[in-house]
Design a protein that fits this description.
By secondary structure, the protein is an alpha+beta fold. It has 4 domains: 40-110 and 131-174, DNA polymerase, domain 1, CATH 1.10.150.130; 183-361, Intergrase catalytic core (hpI Integrase, Chain A, Orthogonal Bundle); 390-464, Orthogonal Bundle (Arc Repressor Mutant, subunit A); 494-559. The chain has helices at 19-35, 46-56, 61-79, 89-101, 137-156, 183-193, 197-209, 213-217, 261-280, 304-317, 326-337, 342-349, 356-361, 366-380, 401-414, 427-434, 438-450, 519-532, and strands spanning 113-114, 128-129, 224-225, 230-233, 235-240, 243-248, 255-258, 454-455, 463-464, 494-502, 505-514, 543-549, 557-559. It is elongated. The N and C termini lie far apart (85 Å). Residues 364-368, 371-395 and 468-490 have low confidence and may be disordered.
Length: 563
């Protein structure tokens, strides 16, 4: 660039034994570098390399700001004065060792203090003795990639001929371990959030679509086709400190997501509330208004960091250890558990690579799939000696599609619609009837087999089994709580079909064993059902529990608890 000659230098210290011979060897080494075009063509330092790299790098603002922060805190203090041509894998490995030792790069001097602030202050109990803490593996890997990218540019600029850190070994990528909320926690979060309907709508949409917080903050009403149930995602809100801006989505994708009828209805109600508030203040809700906004006319978007803070406060109130990003994990997990193929899940989440990122980063469903595999293997195992030949009915709160299908088929079998010894419809027929995948129906049939209602035969139709007296539900026609049924003593638990209703509307059905004449038993069942549905026990007076003997359509009683 300057047209000046560039010299390669190597110094042999004075007093070195055989200094003349060592100098001759150094000359030959430098000549070989020139002949093989391996010599650095610049004496620029790492600081100069980073300055030019950040000036020319085409990176998104928040990414570039993060990289600059890594450079200022970790790269420049340790390598800034080093010449680019002198970097090699050994230097980089030494850097990683230092980063794993102490993130503050202390000098190992005793008496160091970790002050609570860098400003002038009077030390108190919050200023503690220094304790070396390593950088995380993911941060060290990002520092490696910053230097790797800068040195790739150096090769293009002909500063060096090879990337000197290509042979360095950064820490291995940490294994993904997403921890989505459990269904019970999700129900509690939703119920708490809907104390503010607008906030509840945002949390609901986050759970249903699995979108990032910035993408949800950027949704405008013009992006919603509520008539066709489609949400259009094309922008996101970026934030770095106090700076906020509208940008493309993380993967620069323009995607559309289908919404279920409940979510469409929720958005319609939310829009009606927004329009009513705007009209009350003599404003108008425009088509390009933000869906989630604190402004009456929807002219401004929510701040992503504020959304995170509010959700964190909600989780702390409920004593649930989670973050808003884990709702994204929750959505992916529930979709996979419901039998949705991985490419569809990846498309909804905005992942590229045909689902590779989804499988690598969102693996919370592996345990669920493992349970299915274990169940499939157990079904093919021979019976254990002395094991009970029958499988008792289990308590069930049918929330998954395959469970609802199994409950429906169970009712048809118990009602005699499918005769003993005859086959039930094929899985393809049942899948078409219920509008689901074949794998979902197969899981439902497997559940019927576990209950002892059907017989699975490889290569043949699934047959309805004869239900033994030990397994069959007691069928007794009665409209009141009887002190005892035939063959049972008073107070003995009986299999019951129970239905939970909220203000007269059925919200759950399940089976359990209890004494139908015991108010204590029925109250425990009612409280447990309310909690499983995420309800508030303080509202127990709004719920009622209808009680029937298992397999009998006649109502025994309706239990209502006092507060």
């Amino acid at each position: 660039m300057t047209k000046k000659r560039h010299y390669l230098r190597e110094t042999i210290p004075a007093g070195t034994p055989n200094a003349s011979k060592e100098a001759d060897k150094a000359v030959r080494r430098l000549q070989n570098q020139v002949d093989e075009r391996r010599q650095p063509r610049t004496s620029a330092t790492v600081n100069q390399l980073l300055d030019r790299y950040f000036l020319e790098a085409d990176l998104e603002f928040s990414t570039l700001d993060t990289y600059r922060g890594y450079a200022e805190k970790h790269i420049r203090p340790l390598l800034g004065s080093q010449k680019v041509g002198s970097l090699d894998a050994g230097v980089m490995d030494s850097l990683y060792v230092e980063l794993r030792r102490c993130r503050d790069h202390c000098k190992r001097n005793r008496g160091l203090v970790d002050h609570r602030t860098a400003r002038e202050h009077e030390c108190d109990g919050r200023c503690l003795p220094h304790e070396c803490r390593p950088l995380s593996s993911s941060t060290i890997r990002q520092i490696h990639f910053v230097l790797y990218g800068a040195l790739r540019r150096a090769i293009r600029w002909k500063w060096v001929t090879t990337n000197p850190i290509a042979g360095a070994e950064p820490p291995a990528a940490p294994k993904s371990n997403p921890r989505p909320p459990t269904p019970e926690h999700a129900a509690r979060i939703i119920n708490e959030a809907f104390k503010d309907p607008d906030w509840g709508a945002l949390i609901w949409l986050t759970m249903v679509t699995g979108q990032r917080r910035g993408e949800l903050c950027a949704i405008r009403w013009a992006h919603n086709d509520l008539d066709n149930g489609v949400l259009h995602l094309e922008k996101a809100i970026g934030q770095r400190g106090k700076k906020k801006w509208e940008k493309d989505t993380k993967a620069h994708q323009d995607r559309r997501i289908t919404l279920d009828p409940d979510t469409v209805e929720l958005l319609r109600d939310h829009k009606a509330r927004c329009a009513t508030r705007a009209a009350a203040l003599h404003a108008k809700l425009k088509d390009d208004a933000f869906v989630f906004s604190l402004a009456p006319d929807g002219s401004t978007h929510l701040v992503p960091d504020s959304v995170t803070q509010r959700y964190g406060n909600l989780a702390r109130r409920l004593e649930i250890k989670t973050t808003i990003h884990k709702l994204r994990h929750y959505s992916a997990t529930e979709l996979i558990a419901a039998g949705v193929n991985i490419r569809t899940v990846a498309g909804r989440l905005g992942h590229g690579g045909g689902g590779t990122t989804t499988l690598r980063a969102y693996t919370a469903w592996v345990s669920e799939a493992d349970q299915r595999a274990a169940g499939s293997l157990a079904a093919r195992m021979p019976s254990r000696p002395g094991a009970s030949p029958a499988v008792a009915f289990t308590d069930l709160d049918p929330s998954s599609p395959y469970e609802r299908i199994a409950v429906s088929l169970r009712s048809q079998i118990l009602d005699g619609e499918f005769q003993v010894g005859l086959p039930i419809p094929s899985v393809k027929q049942l899948a078409a009837e219920h509008g689901c995948s074949v794998s979902t129906v197969q899981r439902a049939v497997k559940l019927l087999n576990d209950w002892g209602l059907v017989e699975l035969n490889s290569g043949r139709r699934t047959l309805v089994k004869h239900i033994s007296a030990a397994v069959a539900p007691t069928v007794t026609s009665t409209a009141q709580i009887a002190p005892a049924t035939a063959g049972q003593s008073a107070g003995q638990p009986q299999p019951l079909d129970l239905e939970l209703q909220l203000l007269g509307k059925s919200i759950a059905k399940f089976r359990a064993e209890a004494d139908p004449g015991s108010t204590t038993d029925l109250r425990q069942l009612l409280v447990g059902a309310i909690r499983r549905r995420g309800g508030d026990i303080a509202d127990i007076g709004d719920y009622e529990l209808t009680v029937r003997l298992a397999g009998n359509v006649d109502l025994m009683t309706t239990f209502v608890a006092t507060k």
